[in-house]
């Protein structure tokens, strides 16, 4: 196997794909190293263990969503009535292109009953998403209704991703995005 020179960020980015597709417990350092085109020793040069790689993967994913998806909810250059649709369009594009579903949803389902190592980062991700959605809905609805609608959007999309993967039919996500756009 050819040894590649990758930055730590490139390794994390590739590791995200492995964790999304295989899960945390079914992934080992050899899998990560192989997917990155590195030896296991070279991989350990950058990371002490799998947990560190996963934490960095969750952090990078969260940062990407904050910058590219959740930020839409706070963008003053976008009219409020367009924000939800724009956010949902980006979300749909990401999850129709990427295999394996939402790394945060997957991680919660896989690990939360066994350990709480990734609980806080997952909780922070979903809270950031909810706050961004609430900022959109608060322009039109009371805080109580905005929170309910925000929770509904997240639940609809996470459920649609599960059904999309289970049945290998992207229409589940497309339908959920369409229905969620009607909530504003």
Put the structure in a nutshell.
The protein has helices spanning 8-22, 29-36, 40-46, 50-68, 80-97, 103-111, 119-137, 143-167, 171-181. The protein is mainly α.
Textual characterization of the structure:
With 184 residues, the chain is mainly alpha-helical. It has nine helices and no strands. The protein has helices at residues 8-22, 29-36, 40-46, 50-68, 80-97, 103-111, 119-137, 143-167, 171-181. The relative contact order is 0.12.
Please render the helix and strand layout as text.
Blueprint: H1 8-22, H2 29-36, H3 40-46, H4 50-68, H5 80-97, H6 103-111, H7 119-137, H8 143-167, H9 171-181
Helix pairs in contact: 1-2, 1-4, 2-3, 4-7, 5-9, 6-7, 7-8, 8-9
User: SSE order, as H and E?
Assistant: HHHHHHHHH
| Main pleated sheet | none
CA-CA gap between termini? 52 Å
Morphology call: elongated
Class by SSE composition: mainly alpha
């Amino acid at each position: 196997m050819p040894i590649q020179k990758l930055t730590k960020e490139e390794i994390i980015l590739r590791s995200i794909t492995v964790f999304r597709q295989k899960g945390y417990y079914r992934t080992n350092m050899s899998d990560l190293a192989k997917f990155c085109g590195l030896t296991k020793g070279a991989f350990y040069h950058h990371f002490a263990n799998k947990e560190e790689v996963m934490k960095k993967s969750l952090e990078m994913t969260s940062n990407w969503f904050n910058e590219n998806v959740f930020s839409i909810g706070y963008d003053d250059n976008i009219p409020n009535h367009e924000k939800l649709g724009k956010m949902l369009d980006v979300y749909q594009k990401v999850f129709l292109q990427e295999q394996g579903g939402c790394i945060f949803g997957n991680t919660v389902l896989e690990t939360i009953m066994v350990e709480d190592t990734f609980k806080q980062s997952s909780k922070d991700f979903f809270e950031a998403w909810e706050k961004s959605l609430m900022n959109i809905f608060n322009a039109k609805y009371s805080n109580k209704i905005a929170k309910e609608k925000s929770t509904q959007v997240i639940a609809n999309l996470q459920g649609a991703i599960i059904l999309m993967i289970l049945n290998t039919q992207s229409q589940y996500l497309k339908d959920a995005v369409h229905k969620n756009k009607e909530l504003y």
